[in-house]
Design brief:
Blueprint (H helix, E strand, L loop, with lengths): L1 H17 L7 E4 L5 E4 L5 H7 L4 H7 L3 E6 L2 E7 L5 E4 L5 E2 L2 E2 L7 E6 L2 E13 L6 H4 L5 E5 L22 E6 L18 E8 L6 E4 L11 E6 L2 E13 L16 E7 L2 H13 L4
Antiparallel strand pairs: 1-2, 3-4, 3-8, 4-5, 5-10, 6-7, 8-9, 9-10, 11-12, 11-14, 12-13, 13-16, 14-15, 15-16
């Protein structure tokens, strides 16, 4: 009996750690009556101010997030696990099961302070197993790619044990390419990185889940992180969203599962196995 009470107490303490901290909440009420918590997209400067941090420190911490530019378009990506490995979405390179862009024609772009740096991709890229059926495509919409040479950043960390999704756990989304951010520029100009604290919602299975994070075009491929103090580990990457125009006619509304939410592929299974294998083979830790 005492062991059972101890286990319950431990579970409560862990959940409290997941759901405490961060800047002041923006509390709202969803149209279905369920409460929701969201923090909105913040620039690095805004995030630093909200958390009483130096802007340079924030820039260094999130320097691994950048943009993947390919001939057919651009998406977010991040250096993960090793300095010559990036994670992003499979649809940066293919449409469902049909490849459209060779990885060596793409480049990864990031900022080191005010200096923009560009690294071409190598031909080595791994993607989720091709799935034709629409409901399951999201779980395969991930890619692990190799850079031609290492980036000069600290890679994002991977937790090697199996990840467990916690409903309403507070998490951190970092978008490398947010073209809707204030002061945006596109093409060869500077891009805006945004940071957002939000929550895991509707963890339907271990392959995909939803959040109440707010994203716009360009966010595909960006990462979601679990926070342990100053330590961050990646939980998954965004591959799409639900924006139901009938439910949300003005283009903005609060979380409602399968109506307004962001969709993630979980860093588990084949995705995690491939990422860990690629990182272990890298000499650019």
């Amino acid at each position: 009996m005492l062991r059972s009470y101890a286990f319950v107490l431990l579970a409560v303490l862990i959940l409290l750690q997941f759901t405490s901290g961060g800047p002041p909440e923006i509390g709202t009420l969803a149209s279905d009556g369920a409460s929701t918590t969201s923090y909105g997209r913040m620039t690095e400067e805004t995030y630093a101010k909200a958390n009483d941090l130096a802007v340079d420190a924030v820039g260094k911490r999130f320097a691994a997030s950048g943009i993947l530019r390919c001939p057919g378009g651009a998406s977010s990506a991040q250096v993960t696990g090793a300095r010559d490995v990036i994670t992003t979405v499979a649809h940066a390179f293919r449409d469902v099961c049909k490849p459209h862009t060779p990885p060596e024609k793409c480049r990864f772009e990031y900022y080191l302070g005010a200096e923009r740096r560009t690294i071409p991709l190598s031909a080595a890229v791994w993607m989720g197993s091709c799935i034709d059926s629409a409901p399951k495509q999201g779980s395969a919409d991930w890619a692990v790619a190799k850079l031609a040479f290492p980036a000069d950043v600290t890679p994002y960390e991977i937790y090697e044990q199996p990840e467990t999704l916690v409903e309403r756990e507070r998490v951190l989304a970092v978008v490398g390419y947010d073209i809707e951010a204030t002061g945006k520029m596109d093409k060869a100009g500077p891009f805006n990185k945004t940071i957002q604290e939000c929550q895991i919602r509707d963890a339907r299975d271990w392959r995909t889940f939803e959040t109440n994070c707010e994203f716009e075009f360009g966010a595909s491929g960006s990462a979601l992180f679990r926070q342990w103090g100053r330590r961050m580990t990646m939980v998954g990457i965004v591959f799409g969203d639900y924006h139901d125009k009938d439910y949300c006619p003005l283009g903005r509304c609060e979380f409602r599962s399968r109506k307004w939410s962001s969709l993630f592929v979980t860093l588990r299974g084949e995705f995690k196995d491939r990422l860990l294998a690629t990182v272990r083979q890298s000499e650019a830790k």
